[in-house]
Design brief:
The protein is of the alpha/beta class. It contains six helices and eight strands. 29% of the residues lie in helices and 17% in strands. A four-stranded parallel sheet has the order 4-6-7-8, with no helix packed on it. A two-stranded parallel ribbon has the order 1-5. Strands 2-3 form a two-stranded antiparallel ribbon. The N and C termini lie far apart (40 Å).
Length: 151
């Protein structure tokens, strides 16, 4: 990967930080930023809505797990449709870092030909509604997901 590819790589954490940057809300609407203790891995903690829509943002990677955990502890619904997620490991990093995630939309992400390992599928057990429209996932992947998502 050359440096121009690295510059174009968009992580979930980066897009989240850009979209919900407090400077984008000059009147205090949308997010609340609280200072974190010195030495904290997250400079300022964003308290985001419980429903996040980050579709068509070019996301291809998860980013730092601790940042996802700090930002998204209370998130219930996540729309990641029309992104560039093509690795179940990256998706599982996001899902496993959001403890109360109930709804996940992965529609239109290029997931064809990508095998989902059962050990990775375990993180989807809390997700009750999963949308995979036009991801072209294999039936084996769908079967693995249904075995690991009791609801």
């Amino acid at each position: 990967m050359d440096s121009s590819d690295e510059e174009e790589e968009r992580t979930f954490v980066r897009v989240l930080s850009e979209k919900y940057n407090p400077e984008n809300f000059p009147y205090g609407q949308g997010v609340v930023v609280l200072p974190s203790p010195p030495g904290s891995p997250v400079k300022d903690r964003l308290f985001l809505p419980s429903v996040l829509v980050l579709n068509d943002c070019g996301i291809s990677k998860a980013g730092d797990r601790s940042d996802i955990e700090a930002f998204c502890a209370h998130v219930l619904e996540l729309d990641l449709a029309y992104n560039q997620l093509k690795d179940w490991e990256e998706i599982s990093t996001i899902v496993s870092s959001i403890p109360h995630l109930d709804f996940l939309n992965l529609s239109m992400n290029p997931l064809s030909g990508v095998q989902l390992q059962p050990s990775v599928a375990d993180v989807f057990s809390r997700v009750r509604r999963l949308v995979l429209i036009n991801t072209q996932v294999s039936w084996d992947t769908v079967h693995t997901l249904t075995q690991h998502t009791p609801e």
